[in-house]
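--- STAGE predict ---
source: upstream dedup step, 1 unique chain passed
mode: sequence only
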Amino acid sequence: MSYENKMMQLKQMLGKTVDKQSEKPMFKKPDKPEYLHRWEKAGLAIVENDFGVLFKREVEYPMDYVHGDFPLSMFFDALSKWQGTNIEHPYSIGYDEQVVFFDTETTGLKGVGTNIFLIGLLEAQSDAFVLTQYVLADPANEAAFLFESKFWQQKKTVITYNGKSFDWPQLETRWTLNQHLLPKLKTHRQIDLLHSSKRIWKNNLERMKLTQVEEEKLGFKRSGDIPGFLAPIIYTDAVKSGNPESLMKVLFHNEWDLLSLISLYIHSTNLLLEGKTDEAATTYTNIGKWFGDLKHTQQSDNVLLNVTKSFNDEEAGLAYYYLAINQKRNKQFEHAANSFEKAIPHINNREKLKAFEQLAIIYEHYDCQYDKALAYTMEGIEYISTSHFFKKEQQQKKIAEWTKRLKRIESKLQRK
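--- STAGE serialize ---
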């Protein structure tokens, strides 16, 4: 056989191999679990689609339903507040956005072997809020379970608590493993209330677990709730035994999570936009800093100035510090120096050193008061030498940098 004929034969064989590999296996609907009707009697509706079977629970809440300190209808007040301001903020939601509060329960924390077994969705309708929970019948019916969530349809604004880092990536993983069956997952806007809670209540709340935020900030305390870490064990046992009694407690746990997301969004919006002082100075200082980080300098200044007027100097120390940074950025050097000086007795570590540095810069380069610049430089060197938040090499490097500034200022004083 000639070389050309051998090559032609090889190409034909490769073509056949590729064709075989590209053939998709025929999908066969999984068998229905034998406990189907036992779970139905417990309050779960049976849902069947092209990919199998799952369970569904739906609860409707009237607009005046109160969770903690907040009627759910205040969610629309929060939207109105954002529409009434020209501030671009990660929290801001437009009237035209379809919003869904989203939370999951899983069989583990991570890895391909971890299944989502409960998807909870809470959405606002024209006259009520509707909770919809989808429960995985068993792992064989995962495609049916994921499909029913409707995340493959229109884009939405998805509000979660730690969802960016956990719930949504986990959903994406499970979707990818079923992509040969499911429509493509849409990309949705994400608002993670854990991230924003950390911004708002840093140095105010010791822990950021949702249950602690509920009790300390939302006026809600759970009664008869199960610990979250038991949820995977309860679900696994329910599938093995067919008994859904304990599983219903997991659904109630998920329900409270979702209701708390609405209350948390309402309360956080009020804190960000209303300017009240019902919380600690640290909370409003954090908010002022957040606006500054988002380049909303005027809003940041308004919040921080309100802190300095409403609280004593000790409580407002960090507010003076962040206010000074804004003032210096806006070339208000006299105001910045005054704010840094008020901050110094009540701040520590890197912020305190930064304040010494900025005062030295202002008095050397903008005010030409070299004696004050020298004094703050010497205080800075002393602070570096006695502080423990630098490693030894960093400490030596910092002292060298500050000594260079010291010599320059001394030289200017001699020439004066």
